[in-house]
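// run 5 | inverse folding | seed 20
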């Protein structure tokens, strides 16, 4: 059996899309190439984590009151440094920064706004479990002048591209520019991302659910009933769903993207300061919702489509139910109380 020839590189893939996009200037391709370089630098640091002084905390806390890990900070600074150099951005916003990050005056600006979760799955960094980087790209609304907050606070449906890097057994890039979802794998020896998963489509229904059940006692009735339903002996002509929870959104999402299933981070009453759950609308929920929908899946906050949500602040949190279309629709019915109680739930 011949050796599988490597696919096309991510740059070739971008250039193909650029040729098919009228009025494309190459600005997006240049920006994206810098994103890829930054991810390779993060991959390199992660791969030798434990041998380099990258474990542990910086001593800082971020706008969410979370202790910042050294790798959160390294990823944040590396992405900003590389991306601002691309000369295609007019603003950046990061999960690790309270405010919109200005592009240095000496750097040319461009039409794009990039939002990012530099390192997703921070609680898994120092235990060698896969983590990721999430990105979301918008076009600014105005042609010129200083960028205003409303240009950054756009609905997820306005994204021109979104995706993530996953640093796992292999390092992958999964992205969409609205023309399907494509996966690339980093060839460690060649140092290039090659197309390995073209036109990924998510199964309409899965048999996997991913949620931190440790929060069960804090959930609303509808969420509890939905998860009980997935664990009941008879679910959709098959036994109970399989539980899988890595604790890194990128990794849990990626598995369900390929195998089908649903990831949930519901709202809970654990922390009155976080009535809308833990995950961030702009840095986590909206980009994952964009990829999910492009792959035939769906994403909701329990009643509304994530991509229709109007952000009020840079750091809005939102309940997230994302994955296979039929599973997300069923979750929405339970969570919004439209699913009648079955015999065994009537107790
Ligand atoms: O530990 P919990 O409460 O289950 O939360 C896990 C979730 O929190 C996150 O780690 C939050 O993301 P960050 O690591 O970027 O802060 C998600 O990746 C993950 O899905
Ligand atoms: Mg995150
Ligand atoms: Mg993070």
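// decoded
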């Amino acid at each position: 059996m011949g050796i599988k020839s490597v696919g096309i590189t991510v740059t070739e893939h971008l250039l193909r899309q650029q040729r098919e996009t009228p009025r494309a200037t190459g600005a997006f391709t240049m920006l994206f190439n810098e994103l890829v370089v930054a991810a390779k630098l993060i991959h390199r640091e992660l791969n030798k984590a434990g041998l380099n002084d990258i474990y542990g905390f910086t001593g800082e806390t971020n706008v969410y009151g979370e202790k910042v890990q050294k790798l959160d900070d390294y990823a944040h600074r590396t992405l900003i440094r590389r991306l601002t150099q691309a000369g295609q951005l007019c603003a950046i916003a990061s999960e690790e920064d309270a405010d919109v990050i200005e592009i240095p005056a000496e750097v040319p600006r461009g039409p794009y706004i990039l939002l990012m979760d530099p390192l997703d799955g921070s609680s898994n960094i120092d235990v060698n479990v896969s983590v990721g980087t999430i990105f979301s790209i918008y076009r600014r609304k105005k042609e010129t002048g200083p960028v205003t907050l409303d240009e950054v606070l756009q609905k997820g449906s306005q994204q021109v591209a979104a995706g993530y890097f996953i640093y796992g057994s292999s390092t992958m890039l999964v992205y969409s520019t609205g023309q399907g979802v494509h996966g690339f794998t980093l060839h460690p020896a060649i140092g290039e991302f090659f197309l390995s998963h073209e036109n990924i489509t998510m199964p309409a229904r899965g048999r996997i659910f991913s949620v931190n059940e440790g929060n069960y006692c804090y959930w609303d009735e509808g969420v509890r009933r939905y998860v009980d339903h997935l664990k009941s002996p008879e679910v959709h002509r098959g036994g109970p769903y399989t539980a899988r929870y890595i604790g890194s959104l990128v990794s849990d999402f990626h598995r369900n993207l390929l195998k089908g299933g649903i990831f949930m981070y519901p709202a809970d009453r654990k922390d009155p300061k976080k009535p809308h759950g833990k995950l961030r609308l702009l840095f986590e929920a909206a980009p994952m919702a964009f990829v999910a929908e492009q792959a035939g899946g769906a994403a909701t906050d329990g009643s509304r489509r994530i991509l229709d949500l109007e952000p009020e602040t840079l750091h809005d949190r939102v309940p997230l139910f994302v994955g296979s279309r039929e599973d997300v629709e069923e979750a929405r019915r339970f969570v919004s109380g439209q699913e009648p109680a079955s015999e065994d739930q009537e107790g």
